[in-house]
Amino acid sequence: MNGVGFIGAIIIGIFAGWLAEKIMKRDHGLLTNLVVGLVGALIGAFLASMLGIHFFGWFGSLIISTLGAILLLWLLGLMKR
Q1: Which residue of 13, 23, 30, 32 pairs with 38 in a disulfide if CB–CB is 3.0 to 4.6 A?
Q2: C-alpha span between 43 and 4 (Å, rounded)
Q3: What's this model's pTM, rounded to 2 decimal places?
């Protein structure tokens, strides 16, 4: 997450986890949303760098983190079945 700082990363992680939870129609708590959002941010940033996609600031970090969190929840859903 470029240019958002530590507290900003936590806020974006919570919001990205919450958005992914709503999009994937799941029901988690605040702490789980934070973990899903932060891990999703790592996944999203890794995939974006592999694809050559550049993102900056709050909005770009939120989009990448949310997409990574959706991918994480989707993969976890596959493992549960």
Answers
A1: 13
A2: 17
A3: 0.88
How far is residue 7's CA from residue 19's CA, in Å, rounded to a whole number? 18
Structure tokens belonging to residue 64: 């990448």
| Predicted confidence (pLDDT) at residue 81 exceeds the cutoff of 80 | no
Closest CA to 33 of 3, 60, 72, 1: 72
Torsion on CA atoms 6, 16, 45, 3, rounded to nearest 10: -40
Find tokens 């760098």 and name the residue: 49
- Residue 13 pLDDT class (50, 70, 90 cuts): confident
Banded model confidence at residue 58, pLDDT cuts 50, 70, 90? confident
Q: Whose CA is closest to 75, among 45, 44, 29, 52?
A: 44
